[in-house]
Amino acid sequence: MPTTAPTAHALSDVTASDGSLRRFLHGLPGVDAVGLEARAASLGTRSIKTTAKAYAIDLAISMVDLTTLEGADTPGKVRALGAKAVHPDPTDRSAPATAAVCVYPDLVGVAKEAIAAAGGAGKVKVASVATAFPAGRAPLEVKLADVRAAVAAGADEVDMVIDRGAFLAGRYLKVYDEVRAVKEACGTSARLKVIFETGELSTYDNIRRASWLGMLAGADFIKTSTGKVAVNATPANTLLMLEAVRDFRAATGVQVGVKPAGGIRTSKDAVKFLVLVNETAGEGWLDPHWFRFGASSLLNDLLMQRQKLATGRYSGPDYVTVD
Amino acid sequence: MTIEKRSSAFEYAPAPESRAIVDIAPSYGLFIDGEFTEAVEGKVFKTVSPSTEEVLSEVARAGQADVDRAVKAARKAFGTWSALPGSERAKYLFRIARLIQERSRELAVLETLDNGKPIRETRDTDLPLVAAHFFYYAGWADKLEYAGFGPDPRPLGVAGQVIPWNFPLLMLAWKVAPALAAGNTVVLKPAETTPLSALFFADICRQAGLPKGVVNILPGYGDAGAALVAHPDVDKVAFTGSTAVGKQIARTVAGTKKKLTLELGGKGANIVFDDAPLDQAVEGIVNGIFFNQGQVCCAGSRLLVQESVHDELLDALKRRLSTLRLGDPLDKNTDIGAINSAEQLARITALAEQGEAEGAERWSPECELPESGYWFAPTVFTNVTQAHTIAREEIFGPVLSVLTFRTPDEAVAKANNTPYGLSAGIWTEKGSRILAVANKLRAGVVWSNTFNKFDPTSPFGGYKESGFGREGGRHGLEAYLDVR
User: Fold this and answer.
1) In 10 A of CB B267, how many CB atoms?
2) Which of A197, A265, B257, B293 has the maximal Cβ count within 10 Å?
3) What DSSP designation does B327 have?
4) Which element (helix H / strand E) includes B403?
5) A214 touches chain B (CB under 8 A)
6) Residue A316: what pLDDT?
7) Is B279 close to A243, i.e. CB distance below 8 A?
């Protein structure tokens, strides 16, 4: 949030050089860590019950990027995930589908087929991580080839990682140029999610700067983390990113989505994140097009809570699918 | 299934805290010498729930004769209580602290019912702080010789304490805990609109086995308070409330042996510099003036914002205020509760009208006020100058006056340009500026990059017409020890 609302023209000046980009990012208002965490904690005390809870659980299910990102991933595993994404609850067909399945690039084709086979083509997206995920330590050409392969295989969304090394070294323009190049490689067919690995950026000031950097470079989504480091999505870092997309839209008119990923395992947590969305960015973001959960085990907990709300009792983990 | 879009997509369903946990008797007596008793003159008064105007209970109203009885009981108890080893007094205080924790949900609901403030605040702020104060001063009881007031500091005797309605149980804790730790006995008069939590505290004293007469509670009106502070056998007077009453008390006490501490009104300046962490500053402004509906002596009721970020900050503040949830104080999602009394509501209303009449620009978020009870929408006045009444007088309500400044010197000059001097806030990312400005502010409490943060270890009190003496921390012991 610069002092005066920047015009599109002013923002294009921002990225004219390494110096101007640095001045802009360092000119963003600082973040008081204690205050930010206190606000996130305070919103965490909202009590979401009955009808509100039912709404929030269904919304959360529809926002899940059902994810598997393991070296041991196989076509079989991805097929199971694809089927589950389309019909998450085997006992209740009214349960909403998840937003997407998120896999490595080589499994995009399998995921596409699995989703189509389950009748979810076009409804459940396929997201692919790329750019030498999760470390991002590869030459740009290799990263771009990774992206192109994912898009060619039919990925609807690409989850890239930024070069944290360059960011921490203060080479913001390098990070910016890479995101631009990846965005270009995504073309018009794939939406781009930019992962900052907030646990490695470490400070809230850095997370705010990275958020603006990603949005300036054309991110469709900004995403907290890979799920591969110690600290992943937290209420505080997600709140901060929600403030960033809110302010970016106010400044430019462009809406950008947010995806917390990693560490969100319970319905209670998910509902807290939706409260953050509701009371920070606002209801414009209460939609799978603009907010996602990068998660795997979260979905089963949401389904168990959903069953509890519908039937009045807990059915237990044997009544949801193990994948 | 598709997600239905509603007008406000994510409507929080009512989430009321249950009233069943608290059992309010139809009537209460005075608590004197360990027993509940009727008033000598037989007078009673009703206490109502400000959010609904429902009568909660009928309470005995103390008069002069009751003050005499209570002071006598406290005097009698003083000998043995003050002779106990500090470690023994500590045990009672620790026991009281634990009982408060055990009964905290009950007390939070009770306080919300009697005061009108949201359950979120009583549950998350008032009650934890109440228990923390007793724990903290319990720790001092056997260490008084290390408090810096000489090798064997003695208690004063009987403390007459008069507390306000804005934090009924917390103000009781601030007064009672240090008094007992130091070896004094107390006679406490809660405010007439919020007597119940003090009476529940009396029950806790009994539950803790506190010796009779050490704590006496006299619900009543101003006349009982006046009789208490004027009583010749009271050694120490502690008052929290309005500056006008504080001045009367100072006159009453003048020329007597009584030791006096006063914690009075305020018109706190919350200063936002252009390099402030803006999102957190907005939260701090909201917390500064809308916490407890602004009925806080140290409220940040004057927002001093650097002119260069005025518009941006005000936009952000207004957007944030639109998300405040006003309504049933027992609902766990309520941010803004009821005003404590019809009288206070009338005062806030009159001052807000005066602000408009004097040309300040009034703004409130869209919000529906309940039909019964005492309610006032969160209100922001812009284009306020130092000359406006709303910039000078304590409103004691959810009303923020926004003024601007250009330089740090101007901010300090404007912040100090008030007869009060209780609290101030500084918002900047620049550490050196925090220190430089804090040193120049004439306010007893200066918060930086936060507001309305309380802790039993931190002394609290005012400059100028905001009073004198400190409560909390080691400093808070001084008021209850003979250090002359």
Assistant:
1) 28
2) B293
3) S
4) strand B399-405
5) no
6) 85
7) yes
Q: Give the distance, in angstroms, between the CA of residue B148 and the centroid of all CA atoms in the same chain.
A: 28
User: Cβ(A193)–Cβ(A259) under 8 Å?
Assistant: yes
Residues of A with Cβ-Cβ distance to B3 under 8 angstroms: 55, 58-59, 62, 96, 287
Q: Taking CB atoms and an 8 Å limit, are B2 and A96 in contact across chains? A: yes
C-alpha distances (whole Å) from B317 to each of A15, A284, B57, B314 are 30, 19, 40, 5
d(Cα A90, Cα B76) in Å, to the nearest integer? 75
Q: Could you give all domains of chain A from N- to C-terminal order, each with its CATH number?
A: 13-310 (3.20.20.70)
Task: Give the residue on B whose Cα is nearest the Cα of A244.
Answer: B279
Angle at A242 between CA A238 and CA A246, to 5 degrees: 170
- State the Cα–Cα distance between residues B7 and B17, nearest whole angstrom: 26
- Beta bridge mates, B188: B161, B217
Taking one residue from A and the other from B, the number of pairs with CB-CB distance under 8 angstroms is 92
Which residue type is seen at B26? P
Q: What residues does B445 pair with on adjacent strands?
A: B423
Q: Which of A31-40, A253-262, A307-316 shows the lowest mean pLDDT across its residues? A: A307-316
Q: Residue B1: its pLDDT value, please?
A: 35
**Predicted TM-score of the model (pTM):** 0.95
CA distance B308 to B275: 10
SS3 A187: coil
Taking an 8 Å cut-off on Cβ atoms, the answer to whether A39 and B284 are in contact is no
B271 has which bridge partners? B304, B426
Find out whether A150 and A156 touch, Cβ atoms under 8 Å. no
In whole angstroms, what is the distance from residue A290 CA to residue A257 CA?
4
* Ranges for all domains in chain B classified under CATH 3.40.309.10: 269-448
CA B356 to CA B344: how far, in whole Å?
A: 19
Chosen for mutation from A36, A53, A55 (greatest number of chain B CBs closer than 10 Å) is A55
- Taking CA atoms, B157 is separated from B79, B86, B204, in Å, by 9, 15, 22
Tell if the CB–CB gap between B332 and A47 is shorter than 8 Å. yes
Would you state the pLDDT for residue A6?
44
For B269-448, CATH gives 3.40.309.10
Residues of B in contact with A58 (CB under 8 A): 1, 3
Active site residues of B: 263, 297
Tokens standing for residue A291: 């907010």
The reply to whether A243 touches chain B by the CB within 8 Å rule is yes
Contacts of A53 in chain B (CB under 8 A): 13
Question: pLDDT band for position B5 (50/70/90)?
Answer: very low
A39 reaches B (C-beta below 8 A): yes
Q: Tell me the C-alpha to C-alpha distance, in Å, between residue A75 and each of A108, A119, A297, B164, B282.
A: 10, 18, 19, 69, 50
pLDDT at A323: 80
Nearest to B308 among A3, A48, A275 (CB): A3
Residues of B in contact with A46 (CB under 8 A): 12, 332-333
Task: Tell me: pLDDT of B3 over 70.
Answer: no
Nearest CB neighbour to B1, from listed A36, A49, A58? A58
- Round to whole Å and give the CA distance between A135 and B204: 59
Q: What does the DSSP 8-state code read for residue B331?
A: B
Question: Catalytic one among A53, A143, A183, A259?
Answer: A259
Residue A159 is a catalytic residue:
yes
Q: What residues does CATH 3.40.605.10 cover in chain B?
A: 19-264+464-482
**C-beta separation of B469 from B477 below 8 A:** no
Nearest to A240 by CA among A40, A72, A16: A40
- Which among A4, A29, A62 is the nearest to B278, CB-wise? A29
Residues of B in contact with A52 (CB under 8 A): 10-13
Tell me the per-residue pLDDT of A130-167, one tens digit each, with 9 for 90 and over. Answer: 999 999 999 999 999 999 999 999 999 999 999 999 99
Closest of B423, B379, B422, B417 to residue B397, by C-alpha = B379
